[in-house]
């Protein structure tokens, strides 16, 4: 049975990714409904010794992202122009407001400040949900979570980064060192990325045991 459409639908309804405990509960319910397990099978929540907490981006994380992204290219009329990525050779991706990229953002795109702020808030929720999903229920402090969301907002690499794997494994010192590897754009180190990764690593390590 392909369960992906069920998980995709529930994810869309709740507006975020899943914690591992939630995945276990949904799998259990599907197995009960389809006869895959006996009705008296132990419930996954009853077997668990602890349930991972649901995270939201904290004020320190949001402030860090706002600091490094900025809301750029303000016009004389108060609106904002899209601009090419200053660190890439071809200017892609085109960016607007608080570092927003994606479909519909290209040369000539103009947004109001309200549009920039609304997209920023939506992006923060999306990136935070993706980080939570990538952590797979690993113990995480608020400071660590905030640092990882800032990292992911800038790189989009939370699912593939060795940093994430080290954190899930409980190697917080190793994860802290991994931030410094993500300082390149088109294979060139950028001073701004060096400073941003340094601040993210400091925030991450401030919450490490």
TrEMBL record:
Q: Which GO terms describe its molecular function?
A: lysozyme activity
Q: What is its EC number?
A: 3.2.1.17
Signal sequence coordinates: none
Q: Where are the transmembrane segments?
A: none
State any GO BP term from the record: killing of cells of another organism
Q: What class of enzyme is it?
A: hydrolase
Pfam families hit by this protein: Phage_lysozyme
CDD domains annotated for this entry? lyz_endolysin_autolysin
Record InterPro entries: Bacteriophage_GH24 (IPR051018), Endolysin_autolysin (IPR033907), Endolysin_T4_type (IPR034690), Glyco_hydro_24 (IPR002196), Lysozyme-like_dom_sf (IPR023346), Lysozyme_dom_sf (IPR023347)
Domain of life, per UniProt, equals Bacteria
Show the catalytic activity: Hydrolysis of (1->4)-beta-linkages between N-acetylmuramic acid and N-acetyl-D-glucosamine residues in a peptidoglycan and between N-acetyl-D-glucosamine residues in chitodextrins
Which keywords does this chain's UniProt record carry? Antimicrobial, Bacteriolytic enzyme, Glycosidase, Host cytoplasm, Hydrolase
PANTHER family with a match to the protein in the record: LYSOZYME RRRD-RELATED, PTHR38107
Q: Which family does it belong to?
A: Belongs to the glycosyl hydrolase 24 family.
The protein's matches in HAMAP family, at most eight in alphabetical order, are given as:
ENDOLYSIN_T4
Q: What name does UniProt use for this protein?
A: Lysozyme
